[in-house]
Design a protein that fits this description.
The protein is 41% helix and 19% strand. The chain has 20 helices and 28 strands. Strands 3-2-1-12-13-7 form a six-stranded parallel β-sheet, with helices on both faces. Strands 19, 20, 21, 22, 25 and 28 form a six-stranded antiparallel β-sheet that branches. α12 packs parallel to α14 and α13 runs parallel beside α16. The chain binds 5'-O-[(L-methionyl)-sulphamoyl]adenosine (MSP). The site of 5'-O-[(L-methionyl)-sulphamoyl]adenosine has 20 residues, from β1, α1, α7 and β12.
Length: 645
């Protein structure tokens, strides 16, 4: 049987400026849906591209003294680079300047003209060049400007071709009425119904005052209106003119994902073009909200544009993707802020997800020599974990099918939290001390690997790189690209005696103060004696027993030590806390060689806020006594994991 198909598009972007994080938002949503559908077994065609014609582009090129094609080539190369950096999995990239597209646009124009739905007339009216939109006097804002972007409109008067959209208004209203899923969310649907009910005027679809466009086939001094040209991009790459089998497979499109301000073009002009061509209408047009910065839509003219490449360089593509998809509810506007981004990275990615993987792999390394044994039997805690995993997969599927992306991610994270709790509930470090509990311990490790196997698939549409990294660290035998949703509907797929891969940190915590946070051991040792005034101050800073109890001190063993390159004082230590391993940076390199420390049991503060020191995230601090130039770490002959009180 043929696979089910799914055709999804983003808008094609104007190369009038560099793309910003708002554009990246739109494309990331589409990418996550495309990836989900592939996981669900669909044959997906995911299209994005660039909308390169029109007066706005011609003017930009003139300002720079270059040909429009040189101008767009340069900017479009930037788009393609951005989508690559963001791991956008589009199957094609359409440029409206490509010959394949020009052929389609001209043929469509010819067909509709032949049918009598395009006629020649004279246009006199108002035009907003930045939006490439025609307006009527009554539609302008209170200042007589464009109602969308609020910039001045221009009077244009020229001979032009018109498209009889008025003829189709009733048919369109009836279609919208009979297909509640066609325009979503419902607020946009209502807006469009009201707009159409106010009456549709025939649309001017050609211009003569500039020439950067596709010529009208039967009258070459006219170029075709840029929206008429742009909307038809959705038909070009799926073989409208040259590949009937492909066209049949993918048309009508399953989803046009667009920003809320261009829903009007996609739910009025576009369906009417399709009706005039006797083609079925797309199944869904979804108008998403905008990414805003401090309450304002991002735009170059407002100077609040955030460059996605800079953010990807700094935080990585997956962290940016995660933030955009998790933070904003699809139909609504959402705010972008650096603080919120860092907050999400630290709490959701470094802490919840990173710790689950880290703890699991470390325990398998420590308790089972890195080998995952098959589980035999289940207890009540295991059964509840398995039931929650099943529910997580089912909720994921329904959530994504309903385009509730943020809520879906929240559910996946609830399961990550559940798996972290499973570790605490089953206390593997206790089981490890008892030879009779060997199988129970193996079961816990197995169940954690199974949970992580499922989690890596559940996060794949949102964070494809991280998902694959987890898969590789678990060392699962199945090829990651071949994994489908059906594989995680079964529990117990991980084979027996699988050797796990090398654990690596997924997301280091981001310290806002960063290097300011370096611990005492790195600061210069105090040279002078304590003065009386300082003694008084010391007294004032007395702490209560409760405050002291906040400090968690533990005996840990140094497993590995090495110099931090290009520093004199810093050592990077890997320490064993009993139930986990951690990396810390300690400023004791002048007093200890790495080999002097390995094997020592030392006292460490384990609940110190992590800090990034010379690019290494330090998760704790080793205690040391110092006087003058002498320094000795606190070392005790007590078992690893002992509490120091
Ligand atoms: N070229 C037209 C689309 C033609 S589709 C046949 C266009 N291009 S655009 O570059 O101006 O915008 C492309 C998409 O980016 C739109 O869906 C728009 O809503 C989206 N966004 C632009 N700024 C945005 C935000 N700040 N936030 C979210 N999406 C934003 O319109």
């Amino acid at each position: 049987m043929d696979k089910k198909s799914f055709y999804i598009t983003t808008p094609i972007y104007y190369p009038s400026a560099k793309l910003h994080i708002g554009h990246a938002y739109c494309t990331t949503i589409a990418d996550s849906i495309a990836r989900f559908k592939r996981l669900a077994g669909y044959d997906v065609f995911f299209l994005t591209g660039s909308d390169e014609h029109g007066q706005k582009i011609q003017r930009k090129a003139e300002e720079e003294g270059i040909q429009p094609i040189e101008y767009v080539d340069r900017i479009v190369a930037g788009f393609q680079n951005l989508w690559k950096r963001l791991n956008i999995s589009n199957d094609d990239f359409i440029r409206t300047t490509q010959e394949r597209h020009q052929k389609v646009v001209q043929e469509i124009f010819r067909r509709i003209y032949a049918k009598g739905d395009i006629y020649k007339g004279a246009y006199k009216g108002l035009y907003c060049t930045p939006c490439e939109s025609y307006w009527l006097e009554r539609q302008l804002d209170e200042n007589g400007c464009c109602p969308d972007c609020h910039r001045p409109v221009e009077e244009v008067s020229e001979e032009a071709y018109f498209f009889k959209i008025s003829k189709y208004a009733d048919r369109l209203l009836q279609y919208i009425d009979e297909h509640p899923a066609f325009i979503q969310p419902v607020s946009r649907r209502n807006e469009m119904i009201n707009f159409i009910k106010q009456g549709l005027e025939d649309l001017c679809i050609s211009r003569t005052s500039f020439d950067w466009g596709i010529p009208v086939p039967m009258d070459k001094k006219h170029v075709i209106y840029v929206w008429f040209d742009a909307l038809t991009n959705y038909l070009t790459p799926i073989g409208y003119l040259d590949n009937p089998a492909m066209f049949q497979k993918f048309w009508p499109a399953d989803l046009h994902l667009v920003g809320k301000e261009i829903v009007r073009f996609h739910t009025i002009i576009w369906p009417i073009i399709l009706m005039a061509l006797d083609l079925p209408l797309p199944k869904k047009v979804y108008g998403h909200g905008w990414l805003i910065v401090e309450g304002d839509k991002m735009s170059k003219s407002k100077g609040n544009v955030i460059d996605p490449i800079g953010l990807i360089d700094e935080f990585g593509a997956d962290a940016i993707r995660y933030f955009l998809l998790r933070e904003i509810n699809l139909g609504q506007d959402g705010n972008f802020s650096r603080e919120a981004l860092i907050g999400r990275i630290n709490s959701d990615l470094a802490n919840d997800l990173g710790n689950l993987l880290h703890r699991t792999l470390n325990m398998i390394g420590k308790f089972q020599n890195g080998i995952v044994e098959k589980a035999v039997g289940t207890n009540a805690i295991d059964q509840s974990l398995i039931a929650d995993a099943e529910k997580a997969v089912a909720d994921f599927e329904t959530g994504m099918d309903n385009m509730e992306i943020s809520a879906t991610i929240r559910n996946v994270w609830a399961f990550i939290g559940r798996a972290n709790k499973y570790i605490d509930e089953s206390a593997p470090w206790v089981l490890a001390r008892d030879a009779a509990k060997k199988q129970e311990l193996a079961n816990v490790m197995y169940n954690l690997v199974e949970s992580l196997r499922i989690i890596s698939v559940l996060i794949a549409p949102f964070m494809p790189e991280t998902a694959e990294k987890i898969w590789k660290q678990l060392n699962l035998p199945q090829k990651f690209e071949a994994v489908r949703l059906s594989d995680i509907k079964q529990w117990g797929v991980t084979p027996a005696n699988m050797h796990i891969g090398t654990p690596e940190q997924l997301f280091p915590r981001i310290e806002v103060e960063d290097d300011k946070n370096i611990q005492h051991a790195v600061k210069p040792a105090r040279k002078t004696e304590v003065k009386p005034a300082e003694k008084a101050a010391d007294k004032k800073s007395e702490i209560t027993i409760d405050e002291f109890a906040k400090l968690q001190l533990r005996v840990v063993r140094v497993l590995h030590a090495e110099y931090v390159p290009d520093t004199e004082k810093l050592l990077k230590l890997t320490v064993d806390l009993g139930d986990e391993r951690r990396e810390i940076v300690s400023g004791i390199a002048r007093h200890y060689k790495p080999e002097d420390l390995v094997g020592k049991n030392v006292v460490m503060v384990i609940n110190l806020k992590p800090a990034r020191i010379r690019g290494i995230v330090s998760h704790g601090m080793v205690l040391a006594a110092s006087k003058g130039d002498a320094l000795k770490v606190l070392s005790v002959e007590m078992p690893i994991g002992s509490m120091v009180k």
